[in-house]
Write a structure and sequence with these properties.
Blueprint (H helix, E strand, L loop, with lengths): L6 E6 L3 H11 L5 E7 L2 H11 L3 E5 L7 H10 L5 E6 L5 H9 L3 E4 L4 H13 L7 H14 L19 H11 L4 H8 L3 H15 L4 H10 L12
Parallel strand pairs: 1-2, 1-3, 3-4, 4-5
Length: about 230
């Protein structure tokens, strides 16, 4: 983010018309600046290194290097850019793979303009509520796809969980359930500032980037058992 608070955005999609549409929407906002475009994952990585965007809108299906591999490489490089995966379907295995690779959120390509702008701002802030109902359905569908319904959590507990205090463990569960900071504060009779402090400590101790990574981690480690209701 620039000194004046402007959020720098990189668009990565192989469809020029979609990039043009997103650019028109985003550049209509005074605090958003589209600094570059890429048509494949390799170009997105090069542009990210050169332009240092705050947020990358990344299509998952692109020729050559796809958005998943580009996101994975950005995460490995410890890039400060946060990735929003662009997908056509809400329950999409590619979107799930993108979250696993380190993306901070995903959006449908037909997202409403105001929702696109809101998502970019939230992800840039690092304090997004990243487990809305559709994200939980995505996680439950594909985690359930890899683990039979009702199966016990993995036998090997992640030793990093032992670093958490009892309160932080409760917070981790609440984040994984999709509760916002305000909802967590209400549930545990705490101030939102205290909740934010706990969230930062959880991210640090578990070596996770943001709240969506907490949710993915909780599902994959068995802390949250996917629902048996496919319509959830």
């Amino acid at each position: 983010m620039t000194g004046d608070g402007t959020i720098k955005v990189l668009l990565a999609d192989d469809q020029p018309l979609l990039r043009m549409g997103f650019r028109l929407i985003l550049e209509g906002e005074p605090d958003l600046d589209v600094v570059g475009e890429a048509s494949d994952g390799k170009e997105a990585l090069a542009q990210a290194a050169a332009l240092r965007p705050d947020v990358i809108l990344m299509d998952v299906r692109m020729p050559g290097m796809d958005g998943i591999e580009a996101t994975r490489q950005l995460s490995a490089l410890d890039s400060s850019a946060r990735v929003i995966i662009l997908t056509t379907f809400d329950l999409d295995e590619y979107a799930f793979a993108g979250l696993q690779a380190g993306a901070s959120a995903f959006l449908l390509k037909d997202v409403a303009p105001e929702e696109l702008v809101h998502a970019v701002r939230l992800v840039a802030s690092g304090d997004a509520v990243v487990a809305p109902r559709v994200t939980q359905r995505l996680l439950e569908t594909y985690v359930r796809g890899g683990r039979p319904q009702g199966q016990a959590p993995p036998q090997h507990r992640d030793p990093l969980l032992d670093e958490l205090t009892p309160r932080e463990t409760e917070m981790l569960q609440a984040i994984a359930e999709g509760l916002s900071n305000a909802e967590i504060a209400h549930k545990f009779f705490l101030s939102e500032a205290t909740v934010k402090t706990h969230v930062r400590r959880i991210l640090t101790k578990l070596h996770l980037r943001d709240r969506v990574q907490v949710v993915v981690y909780a599902y994959e480690s068995g802390l949250v058992i996917p629902s048996n209701n496919p319509d959830y």
